[in-house]
Amino acid sequence: MTRQPSATLVVVAVLVAVALASPGVGAAATVVVPAAAVLPAQPPPPPPPNPGDDELERSRQSVQDRAAEVGRLTARLAELDAQAEQLQMEVAGRNEEALAARDTADAAGREDETAAARAADARTVTEAAGDAVADARAATEAAGRAVDDARTRIDAFVGDVYTHGLDLGPLGLLSRATDPQDLMDRARLTDALSEDQAAVLEQLQQARIAQANADSLARAAQEEADRRRADAEQASAAADSAVDEAVAAADAQQTRLDAVHTERTDVQSRLDAAENADAGLRAQRQRYEAWRAEQARLQAEADRRAREEAASRVAQESAPSDGPAPRRTGSAAIETVIDRAMAQLGTIYAWGGGNSRGPTRGIRDGGVADAHGDFRKVGFDCSGLMQFAFAGVGISLPRYSGNQANAGRLVPISDMRRGDMLSWAEGGRTHHIAIYLGDGKMLEAPYSGASVRVTPVRYDGLNKVTRLL
């Protein structure tokens, strides 16, 4: 762990510096630190939430599903729009047909009115013919009665003359005859009256024929008008029915269109919610990544300061001789071991690299280390870092981490303290080793591709705590 001055020490140091800089205060002056100036260190803020990759993938998939559904509904909406437009065109066409049928009906109505007028005229002619017939019949009847009356008188006169001789009685027609010729002339007049009666009868017959013809024409005109009106009304009714059907179909299509509109709006809102949630998760991830980057920057800065401070303290110690350093113990030796290890913060990991004198070129392992090019790097692996750290206090460690773990006194994990070595094993074989710094932190050379670092203790797989000092 990096040994950084506490907040209390910083405050005290500042107050001392201020006091020493004040006029009249000598190097031996006593500085009184107010109790209020000693503030407890504030814990670091917790990290922002970091959604997992699975959660982000599910959110992304949800957005894609909603987007696909919106696309499908949009296509369906366009299809229904086209169908609705087609139906509206059909409605307009049916309306035109209805207008044409109504025009036909109106024309038939006008023709019916004309036919009715012609029928009325025919009826008028018929009525006039009837009047003429009646007049002719009356004239015929009057002429008949006159002829009959004349004939009766002639017959009576002839009988009387034959029986009684000539009688100039009251018969006006014959009694005024001056001679037989006159009498014959008057008889011929009677015949003329009969002929007149026949002529009147002929006129009556012609009047009846004219009346029958007028009646026939009137009936034909009325029947044609009625037929045209019926055809027009049937066509108009058919057109109206077609319009009603087209309007009903358009209404039904519009209902389906409205339903798809509603469904699309619902899916769009769900898509928006999914996108917002996804954006929220990604924003959380971005904030977390930014926080982690900031923490990495702060850690790198702290590591740099700790490395420089540790290197400075190591350099201040007496230079080692050509032989191994003298064996040392105690808390000062623990700090020397930790300072030597902390001075290597940021040094690249190289499998097989490092010894008691410092970092060295790595070696081939035929696997992961070779894939990372460790054999071309100058650095430490976990056991090489332990060799270098403990060599500063005269402790020579074997190269293999498993042997290092057994090089000192084993203590319970619950009893670990600053400066102890921590080792991990799998299947009874040790595969990693580090130095415990205290406060739940350790210093290690972790794996290929990483660098020497300070990190929280990993208790999973931790099986030995080895104390050398």
What does this structure look like?
It is built from eight helices and eight strands, in the order αααααβαβααββββββ. The longest helix has 137 residues, at 180-316. The protein has 469 residues and is of the alpha+beta class. The chain has helices at 7-21, 53-164, 172-175, 180-316, 331-342, 368-371, 382-391, 401-405, and strands at 360-361, 378-379, 409-411, 421-426, 429-438, 441-444, 453-456, 462-467. A hairpin with an 8-residue loop joins β6 (441-444) and β7 (453-456). A six-stranded antiparallel β-sheet has the order 3-8-4-5-6-7. It has a two-stranded antiparallel sheet with strand order 1-2. Helices cover 64% and strands 8% of the residues. The two termini are 17 Å apart.
In short:
With 469 residues, the chain is an alpha+beta fold. The chain contains 8 helices and 8 strands, in the order H-H-H-H-H-E-H-E-H-H-E-E-E-E-E-E. 64% of the residues lie in helices and 8% in strands.
